[in-house]
Protein 1
Amino acid sequence: MPFKPKRPCSHPGCPKLTNGRFCEEHAKQEAARYEKYQRNPAVKKRYGRSWKRVRDRFLTQHPLCEVCQKQGRLTSAEEVHYIVPLSKGGTNATENLMSLCKSCHSAVTAKEGGRWGRNYSRK
């Protein structure tokens, strides 16, 4: 299958070609700028050092994707998902967390966006 041609970096004056929007150097700068100026401070506060500790501990205890396990597949978990989001009163308690692979996390997050009204739980 042919590849899409590379395009110039979107950073003004950068001549480098890239597959994404920015070259590697400017992608890091753009991510830092986004974190500093555009990301909601409340969200940033929720996902600080304590969340990283909770997440790492949970992934150590639950190394496999829970959705894939229910379907008979063994996939390593890369993400930790809140069953009840923090914005809706959820907590960092173990009962409110699910270990998921990236594709299942994307699917669960999209479905919980309110379109389908489906809620995943471990039960």
Note: The beta strands are 7-8, 17-18, 79-82, 97-100.
Protein 2
Amino acid sequence: MKILLSEDNQLLRKSLSFFLESKGFIVDQFSNGKEALDAIIQNQYEIILTDINMPGISGMEITQFVRNNLHLKTPIIIFTSSNVEQTELDSFNIGANEFIAKPISPSVLLVRMNRLLNIK
């Protein structure tokens, strides 16, 4: 199962990628929102994981583009270090399926991903 991981924090991106690959996922990882969006346009992913604050293009902009321009129903999980309730509400309003505050528990992420992908 192919997923996109867009996270500018290298340590978090590499550790999540390693964890997800150990669970059988194929992970395309990006540290820049523009590169991530280009990959989404060119490839098909089962799920998109993106940080909200990314260089180039934000996770919010990626989500809006996926929903409004590409019209994809691909599940999207947004990560953020912000604990602002409005940010979470805005994420859902633009089409995100899940919102996870940092620090991210890989096990919790996996449960939420599996739920979105209907994996038991």
Note: Residues 10-22 form the longest helix (13 residues).
Protein 3
Amino acid sequence: MIRLIRSELIKLRTTNMWWIFMLCSLVFIGLALLVNIAQAHQELHVQSWATEPPGPGMNDEQRAQFLQDQQAERDRVAQARTAAGLAQHAASIYTSGQFFGLMMVMLLAILLITNEFYHQTATATFLATPKRTKVIVAKLITGAAMALAFWLVATVIDVIAGSVFFASEDVSNSLGNWTAQQAMLLNLLVYALWAIFGIGIGVLLRSQLGATITAAVLYTVGTYASLAALALIHEFLIKKDWVMQAAVYVPPLASEHVVGGLSGQLGGVDLPARWVGVVVLVAYAIVLGGIGTLITRKRDIA
């Protein structure tokens, strides 16, 4: 098994795709950091209008409403600056770039298996290792190791940038807070699971181009289409919270829920515990990984 894993790592390292995907991931991390830091900055500061005196032309009702809105704004910022509020912002910043980072990991994992068919090395691989299950397990371990590398790079960049930001705001960076630590650790699990998804998809769709395009479209377009469909159903057909809560059963959205980033996209709907998202992702990984292994064991390799 160790030799198989080394072989898979060599195959991965000697292709140009891994560093192209890593560069793309770095770009998305930078963009996500800018957005999350800007949002956190806004949340940590009282808006200018909330420090202005009521206008002279306001009547008593308008003045009372204006003062009430000002107090609500101050309360919101005070809440954001509590330990719990800062930890939530830290969790978001320290997992920046997750959405597209996971897609890069999935696509690279797909290439781990489809490259065998594209370059016609599958026959030699399975002749050298007749027990095909070992080959798939080696690819799964290699994919998980690759996901670990992507997660580590993303997390280091996020933590450095986030710590600098929190220092500039003169507030705690929350690195010692379990909420932030849990988000980062669960993010590692999510990265590894998406590598398994990629291996499973690569086995199901042996065409390199077909598998990567299909997976990328389903991941991006499918995610937002699912959100839109759930919103329309909730608005016009079934006005129950469980409709929007069903978003956690969509893998990319489950990934965001695991690190606490989904609630804001659903209008503050109460969502199930994070472990539900973990269970959903693990279930998908078991199904895709199991199907992929069974198909590889039985399929003829030309």
Note: The first helix runs from residue 2 to 13.
